[in-house]
Every structure is written in structure tokens, then in C-alpha cells.
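pls design
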């Protein structure tokens, strides 16, 4: 069997490569935030701009800027379109 070398992304690499791009953040409480990643820290706290909030599948509005605390995050998904 041939040895295949696969690139394994580290969580911080995914965030670094997503700076200034659209991401989706799913958090506890059936909430989802979609917006532009402005920054992050080692605790996975993320700062988003132009944020669309969805709760239980219902759009709740758009916010200019938002800080999402890392211990509430279930997953982060970079946008495929960027």
C-alpha cells in the first residue's frame, strides 16, 4: 500500500486562512451566525462583522459587529465561495 501524505489542518490554521472571509459559526442554543471574520484569539473567541443571526432556523436580524465567545462555539465553517 502506498504512503499518502495528507495535509491536516489545525484549528488555528483554518481561522487564520478565513480572516476577512465569510464564515458560519454554529453555537449552543440552536443559534447560527454568518459574517466576515475580523479576528480571533487562542480561546476561539471570534469577532465577526456584518453578522446575520439565525435562531432555530429563523432569521433574527443583521448586526454590524459581534463577539462570539469560544466556549459556546460548536463549529466554524469557512465559506466555499471565498
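designed seq:
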Amino acid at each position: 500500500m502506498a504512503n499518502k501524505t495528507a495535509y491536516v489542518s489545525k484549528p488555528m490554521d483554518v481561522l487564520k486562512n478565513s480572516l476577512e472571509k465569510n464564515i458560519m459559526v454554529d453555537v449552543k442554543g440552536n443559534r447560527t451566525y454568518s459574517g466576515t471574520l475580523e479576528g480571533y484569539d487562542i480561546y476561539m473567541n471570534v469577532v465577526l462583522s456584518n453578522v446575520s443571526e439565525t435562531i432555530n432556523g429563523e432569521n433574527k436580524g443583521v448586526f454590524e459587529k459581534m463577539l462570539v465567545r469560544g466556549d459556546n462555539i460548536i463549529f466554524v465553517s469557512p465559506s466555499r465561495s471565498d
